[in-house]
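hey m, so remember when u said the tokens were messed up on ur end? i reran from scratch. heres the input so u can diff it against urs
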Amino acid sequence: MNVHFIAIGGSAMHNLAIALHHKGYTVTGSDDEIFEPSRTRLEKLGLLPATEGWDPARIHAGLDAVILGMHAKKDNPELLRASELGLKIFSYPEFLYEQSKTKKRIVIGGSHGKTTITAMILHVLKENGVECDYMVGAQLEGFDVMVKLTEDAPYMIFEGDEYLTSPIDPRPKFHLYRPDVALLSGIAWDHINVFPTFENYTEQFTEFIRLITPGGALIFCEQDAVLKEISLYTREDIEILPYGLPEYVVEKGVTRVIRGGRTYALNVFGKHNLMNMEGARLVCLQLGITGEAFMKAITSFRGASKRLERVAQKGTMTVYKDFAHAPSKVEATIHAVKEQYPEDKLVACLELHTYSSLSEAFMSHYSGTMDRADTAVVYFNLHALRLKRLPDITPEQIRKGFGRNDLEVFSDSSLLKQRLQNEAKTNIIFLMMSSGNFDGLDLSAF
């Protein structure tokens, strides 16, 4: 099969391109900018475009499919040429669904925890020798790729994102996967540039539940009030499986889960991760993994990249980075670290990087989220505001939104680095939270 990728350099797109290459497809692609690690990974397999930019000459009648990435625009010359030739044009999620039609599809959705839950499931399946295809949103320990597609695997595990499908398809991605088993971890308003009201955002998850196949299952966190309400109106032809917080203790910096009279020491911590684990356990039970086999396997799970990932430790100083950026994620992550290290000083630093987080109208949703940090710091880049065409925000507006007068605010990464390096380095935890990278700040150099 001959497939061309428009915007091959994206994180998701280049992983799908690699997966199809491994499957034996002929893969070509184009993009107007390709950054690391996509560039090196594509180049290694001979998939890197010879030149950057768009060229309609790359589109020809011999293509079996064109896969369109979100980075492209509606007037992309290659897209227009593909339309003229009447070629099959797929979005990223549409093509993944086509690849999984004959498999049992498990889709992990929710405003938070998707990557971690998906990673937990994949880890347990691998430990138990269960073959599956998958798509996950982060590089995982023990897995070479973020997308795997085969002919024979009986299952396909999707991380189900609620963001838009493509420049020409405004449906949320996870609406296209039609799950046999669906998991929802929680609902907290996000992507306000696409979903302008909370009701509009919530409706996307209600529709996702409607799309579960007849005879399927919905697994959801019953501690989420919105999900609990939605579940009351779920169809009668699907199984409803709620989950919550398991029994646990924290001893000498180690979280231990208590189940069936046995204690299991984990490498991850935090109430949100314990609930993520419970959701993953219910999914694995649906796939034939016993409860005991799940617990034995999950003890060796070390987390997904950038999800409470420890990036440095020097004596009694530890640095964690986390993908948290939405208010509920920030609060849960800070709570988790403070519970795990109650005697240490916690310096929590959040980068405002997304459209929602940089919007003054949304800022009040962060009120109280950083209260448990001993020192709270917020960083933002004026360039990010320009790219998103948002008006300037001031430190005073940010402090008001977060409801914390002693909040330290920086918009210069060099000054932020200097401030953090001047902090005492004994019995201290640095928690760096961002969906970006603090403009290249070396998190191991504090």
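this time it looks ok to me. The chain has a mean pLDDT of 94. if urs says something different then somethings off w ur setup not the seq
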